[in-house]
Amino acid sequence: MSAPPVSELVEAATAAARGAYAPYSGFHVGAALLFDDGAVVGAANVENASYGLSLCAEANAVARAMAEGRRGGLVAVAIVGGRPDAAGAVVPGSAPVMPCGRCRQMLHELAALGGTDPEVIGVAEGGHTRLPLSALLPHAFGPANLA
């Protein structure tokens, strides 16, 4: 399998962000997970009036992938975040959006099930930052720690 270009994964994350429910922050986030079989699973953030119950796009994408039976095989993640313009398109800010600590842990667990270290692509206005997940979450706790 040849991976789709980064631009296609970023576009999938951008499309997912359009589905965000963010009435409180106005900040829409979309995440797209790429798997080794070429499948892409996307999701958006969902806010709640009880802020602690809000869900990040990355967490929603991981949950969706797991619900579809995916266990491992994660090779890349693209994240797009920003405020929507008048047409509803998400406009990334000047800094790339990267996963929060909770989402880094969730991504690690999914990746660890397949022994991968996915590339994380955080999109910003005019470019993106690419880092392996292990650089964002060094010495991660995962399934192997429970053996």
Report low-confidence residues grouped into runs of 5 or more.
Answer: none
Reported CATH architecture: 3-Layer(aba) Sandwich
Percent strand: 25-35%
Helical proportion, percent range? 25-40%
The CATH topology turns out to be Cytidine Deaminase, domain 2
CATH class: Alpha Beta
Order of helices and strands: HEEHEEHEEH
CATH superfamily (homologous) name:
Cytidine Deaminase, domain 2
Strand runs, count: 6
Number of self-contained structural domains: 1
Gross morphology: globular
Sheet with most strands: 6 strands, mixed
Chart the SSEs and their pairings.
Blueprint: H1 6-17, E1 28-35, E2 40-44, H2 57-67, E3 74-84, E4 90-92, H3 101-112, E5 119-124, E6 127-132, H4 133-136
Parallel strand pairs: 3-5
Antiparallel strand pairs: 1-2, 1-3, 3-4, 5-6
List keywords for this structure.
alpha+beta, 147 residues, Cytidine Deaminase, domain 2, 4 helices, 6-stranded mixed sheet
